[in-house]
Amino acid sequence: MAEPERITVVLADDHAVLRAGLRALLDAEPDVEVVGEAGTGDEAVEVVRALRPAVAIMDISMPGKDGLAATKEIVASVPETRVLVLTMHDDEQYLYHVLEAGGHGYVVKSSADSDLLSAIRTVARGGVFVYAPAAAHVLKDYVEASGLPRPSKKTGLSEREVEVLRLTAEGYSNQEIADQLYLSRKTVDSYRGRIMEKLDLHHRSELVRYAVRRGLLRE
Questions:
Q1: The pTM is what?
Q2: How far is Cα 11 from Cα 31, in angstroms, rounded to an integer?
Q3: Which of 25, 66, 156, 206 is most solvent-facing, going by the fewest CB within 10 Å?
Q4: CATH homologous superfamily of 7-129
């Protein structure tokens, strides 16, 4: 049997002991390979540019350039690398800041042993690691706190396309969307392709941010 294609990963965290623990966790998996490490935001940008991994795991709080600033640089200069933010803050509001920076999800350090591998595999295959039950709550709070009127839900999309967009933004995989809407996965793929073409979007994280601004998620 052929070995699974490995997901290459760069670890960026200013704590060497934590990096060592994460490396041990990830290297034990047959489909994940840690190819580089960084201890600062600036180093993270340099290492990712040099190695161009599939996934960069980025701590938010690092000396000098923080993880969100480094994420923005990586997304701009190495768009094929998916950035997964790792944070000690168990605060769902960080989800919005991560998406705004161009990241593809975040994992709380306290649950890294149970969530990190799933998150890496999700973002590596083009997904966004979002806690679906929390997403609508986070976005509702953001709109209310901003003092702005709720954005219009008019999108120029068909009703079914809006359903696919909403479920995508809430963190469901294409197969899960297909199951919910009684469609084939191929049909869901086609819907998502048309949605991205109509909206001139290119990544799943952009679909999530679009849904945020349009107020399309369920409360």
A1: 0.63
A2: 16
A3: 156
A4: Response regulator (3.40.50.2300)
